[in-house]
Amino acid sequence: MKVPSKEILHKVSQWLEHADEDLRLATYALKMRGKAPPFRLIAYHAQQCAEKCLKGFLVYHNVDFPYTHSIRRLLKLCEKYGTWAQTLKDAEELTPYVITARYPGETEEATKQEAQRAVAIAQQVHNQVRQALKQLGLKLSR
Asked: What is the DSSP code string of 1-34?
């Protein structure tokens, strides 16, 4: 495979940095004291982490992905470049949080257990995508 240009590598880095921030925020929010943490927002940021990781991987491969928040659709696109994507089917659970967490009346609030699971799944996606990119020779700081 042809080595991506510096511009592409920079874009991949930006996607991954944004994903890292979403994951850090979700993880930190789970530890909030006092009033119950906003579990719906924690789940939302977990979804955003997974989405941005997958999009970063697709950018690396110069895939012009559609405007979508569907983790299933993004994983399907990633499958062409790595069998690891098939191991992340649980990540499809995160997709609804992109809507239900942001708009009132769409569904019930996320529970603590759902938020914890969402963060755990996002961490798996994060780790898997970063590992796949490292195997392709991308130097990542973390």
From this structure: -PPPPHHHHHHHHHHHHHHHHHHHHHHHHHT--S
Domain that holds residue 27: 6-135
Q: Are residues 31 and 102 in contact, defined by beta-carbon separation less than 8 angstroms? A: no
Q: Mind listing the pLDDT tens digit for each residue in 87-116? A: 999 999 999 998 776 666 666 678 999 999
Residue 109 DSSP label: P
What would the pLDDT profile of 20-64 be if each residue is shown by its tens digit?
Answer: 999 999 999 999 888 888 999 999 999 999 999 999 999 999 999
Tokens at 55, concatenated: 């999009």
User: Cα-atom radius of gyration of the chain, to the nearest Å?
Assistant: 15
The answer to whether residue 142 is domain-embedded is: no
Q: Give yes or no for a contact between 51 and 39, defined as CB atoms under 8 angstroms apart.
A: no
Side chain identity, residue 51: E
User: How many structural domains does the chain have?
Assistant: 1
